[in-house]
Amino acid sequence: QVQVVESGGRSVQAGGSLRLSCAASGRTFSSNFMGWFRQTPGKERDFVASITWNGGNTYYTNSVKGRFTISRDNAKNTVSLQMNSLKPDDTAVYYCAGKSRLSLTTMQNPAGYTYWGQGTQVTVSS
Predict the structure, then answer these.
(1) Is 89 in a helix, a strand, or coil?
(2) Residue 51 in contact with residue 70, Cβ under 8 Å?
């Protein structure tokens, strides 16, 4: 079973940048799809970005397109989320998650992801 740990979250001013990292352990990481989700208090966990097992395809929610970039390094078992031009609306706890590439659920559906990290807080102030 794969386990993941997020890091990189902190407080930043609007317009700034952050890079979140997700370190994974487990032999199947390189064959899994990986995603980033975010959640604010009282709301559901929302899709942010995802990447296929070989990095060949990436997906983003509309609100972060052109600002965020997801990437992975299978040799290092890591997934990253580069976040630029941050806005106060990006404030949330960010979660790294993974699922089998054989999963039939969409990349955007959190229900299809089988393992999750504990989350890292990102706070963007205006």
Answers:
(1) helix
(2) yes
Distance CA 98, CA 79 (A): 10
Going by C-alpha positions, the residue among 22, 21, 16 that lies closest to residue 90 is: 16
Which residue shows structure tokens 């390189």?
30
Query: How many CB atoms sit inside 10 A of residue 4's CB?
Result: 23
pLDDT in tens, 47-94: 999 999 999 999 999 999 999 999 999 999 999 999 999 999 999 999
Element (H, E) at 78: strand 78-83
- The answer for residues whose C-beta is within 8 angstroms of residue 5's C-beta and 6 or more apart is 22, 23, 117, 118
Residues 6+ apart with CB under 8 A from 31: 53, 100, 101
